[in-house]
Amino acid sequence: MGVLGLTSRKFNKFFQIKYKIINRNYYTQKRLLSSNYSSQNDAILPVLIVGAGPVGLVLSALLTKLGVKCAVLERSTTFSKHPQAHFINNRSMEVFRKLDGLAEEIQRFQPPVELWRKFIYCTSLTGSTIGSVDHMQTQDFNQIVSPVSVAHFSQYKLNALLLKQLEAVGFTVRSHEGLDHRPLAEREILMGHNCISVEATGNLVNVTTSFVKEGKHIEKQIPCSFLVGADGAGSTVRNLVGIEMRGEKDIQKLVSVHFLSQELGKYLMYEKPGMLFFIFNPGAIGVLVAHDLKQGEFVLQMPFYPPQQKFEDFSSEVLFFS
Ligand SMILES: Cc1cc2nc3c(=O)[nH]c(=O)nc-3n(C[C@H](O)[C@H](O)[C@H](O)COP(=O)(O)OP(=O)(O)OC[C@H]3O[C@@H](n4cnc5c(N)ncnc54)[C@H](O)[C@@H]3O)c2cc1C
């Protein structure tokens, strides 16, 4: 996640400086963030967050709780139904504990821990088990290292709970049609808007977004005091402000197949319940993520090696019959 507020053109430097300013002059910053928007200039949002993934949504809820006015821009026109992440660590659960009952809701709605505490290594789902690892430890249940245990809950379900929380404090999800020509208001999540440029002038960050209307790309300017890049691993905001990603890129490519099978869910639930199934045999290698055995919701992840392999090699016909 990146944060940008505007006092310097040297974005990289600014990135570090701004954090220091926030820490040193907390009260000044607090006034700027909470009162500037309504009383001085209605067109300037105190905080604009790019990205309505879990990080952007959690941040919106936390800022709102602190009285900081914010809005969110999201490139996709709808929220993804791909399960993506599922394993939530202690630290994330501790943050969720601060959000009116979110940690408790996750614990209530997640599958029973007995169904996901194991990683299973096997030759195939119906074949022999090579070994299994129980990744839950006594300390996880006894609240020794953290007051909240880890959880197993699909990302799209988490996003739905976060949206419910945000709606309860006055957030609205808008398509670009819902905005017309008026500026983006606080507590709005604007869908279908791709952040394409960021410009720092004086105390403002001018964010340009692009959206599609009747087949045409239209650009819109959104000024704000602080910009937060919560736009994922390939962050556009990070690239636009010239912050390089450290470490190795493209470590591995995977093809993920999301499917529903109550039959498989029932079979695994009784035969070998687990969260991850590492499958090794000469015909196929993959990791099956059991998002919810009771619902029969799975993602099969397979290694993908372009240019030797093409994406088309993983067509639904091939996957269904293999
Ligand atoms: C298959 C899979 C399994 C995973 N499993 C786990 C797991 O078990 N546990 C775990 O902790 N993590 C897991 N992860 C990683 C986890 O999904 C990410 O860490 C998490 O999604 C990061 O959240 P985020 O909000 O930062 O970014 P994202 O979820 O990527 O959200 C970023 C949002 O920003 C939007 N966006 C991007 N660019 C722009 C732009 N230019 N303008 C406007 N909007 C933009 C995107 O559309 C997106 O909605 C998994 C990921 C995948 C793909």
From TrEMBL:
Residues covered by the FAD-binding domain: 46-310
Molecular-function GO terms, alphabetical: FAD binding; oxidoreductase activity, acting on paired donors, with incorporation or reduction of molecular oxygen, NAD(P)H as one donor, and incorporation of one atom of oxygen
Record-level GO cellular component terms: mitochondrion
Name of this chain's protein: Aromatic-ring hydroxylase-like protein
Source superkingdom: Eukaryota
One of the GO biological process terms: ubiquinone biosynthetic process
UniProt keyword list: FAD, Flavoprotein
Flavoprotein keyword on record: yes
Pfam families xrefs: FAD_binding_3 (PF01494)
InterPro entries cross-referenced by the UniProt entry: FAD-bd, FAD/NAD-bd_sf, RIFMO-like
Signal peptide: none
